[in-house]
Amino acid sequence: MKKFSKIQFILLNIIVLTIIIVSGAFLIKIIQLFLTNVFFLFSSLYLLSKSPFSKRISLLIIFVPILLLYGGAYIYDLIYDEGFTGKPFFWGYLIIALLIYLSSINSISKKNVIYFFIPFCFFLTAHVWYNSAENEKEKIELTQMVNARFIDKIGNDYSLNSFNGKLTLFEFWTTGCANCPESIAKFHELAEQYKSNKSVDFKVVNINLGKRHNEKIFEQIESEIKLERLYTDEDIFKQLNFNAAPSILILDAQGGIVYFGYPNFKKFTQNYLPKIIEKELAKM
Fold it and tell me: For a disulfide at 163, which of 168, 229, 233, 255, Cβ 3.0-4.6 Å?
């Protein structure tokens, strides 16, 4: 079997890593998790089979960059608790590395690697989906709603009850959330569609997880926010059982939870936000 040249091998590894990283820009997290793991498994097996390097060097080139990238972010999140959502990706890629290492030393065949990993990937994806913000509405601790507090730029204090009387959408973001800037931009576009409707309101809420460690990023993101800006801290995540950012919380005019979950702006996805808004406005 013809091998790649050393330059070709390294370039292909860079391309694979780039595809995995940028896939988050156009795939929702659950789909990205499954597809990137499967893609990385088969890419790694193929690259290893065509590598011009020794097995040990090949494994280092294939796996060290991606494990350092996601593992470093994982460790940073353990220290600063900024809502890093790439933890299941790290564990998936680590399992792939272990399986392919075992395959390379003939402890397990490539066929068995695939037979084991595909069901494992389904299980990992299902586990993340079940525990994600997409599926959390029923798990919110309603009894703790009274304790949720917000402040605005000048220090005025608000509870969730302060927003009764309108259909209110809150988008929560953190400085450690890679998808938040794009999501906030789409949230602005959605708010623009309803700017003439006085029955619906949009607010962007920063969860101050590690703000002092990322002041530059905080200012950069916040400078693009044109909607009313509110602030809270990580306690709201603990009180209401939030677990991911960006997240959307929609309250009806009576303060009841209409939706809590991932901000879906694509028309043919589940929980399409404009559809939820129209449905609730029709009730008012």
Answer: 168
Please report the sign of the dihedral spanned by the C-alpha atoms of residue 67, residue 73, residue 78, residue 83.
Answer: negative
Instruction: Provide the edge-to-edge strand list for the sheet that holds 157-159.
Output: 157-159, 149-151, 228-232, 200-207, 167-173, 247-251, 257-261
pLDDT digits (tens, 9 = 90+) for 112-163: 999 999 999 999 988 887 666 555 555 555 556 667 788 888 888 888 788 8
Q: For the domain made up of 135-283, give the CATH fold.
A: Glutaredoxin (3.40.30)
Residue 53: phi and psi, rounded to 5, are: -95, 175
Q: Are 193 and 227 contacting, i.e. CB atoms less than 8 angstroms apart?
A: no
Q: Are 173 and 167 in contact (CB under 8 A)?
A: no
What residues contact 65, with CB distance under 8 A and at least 6 apart?
13, 17
Domain ranges in the chain are 6-131, 135-283
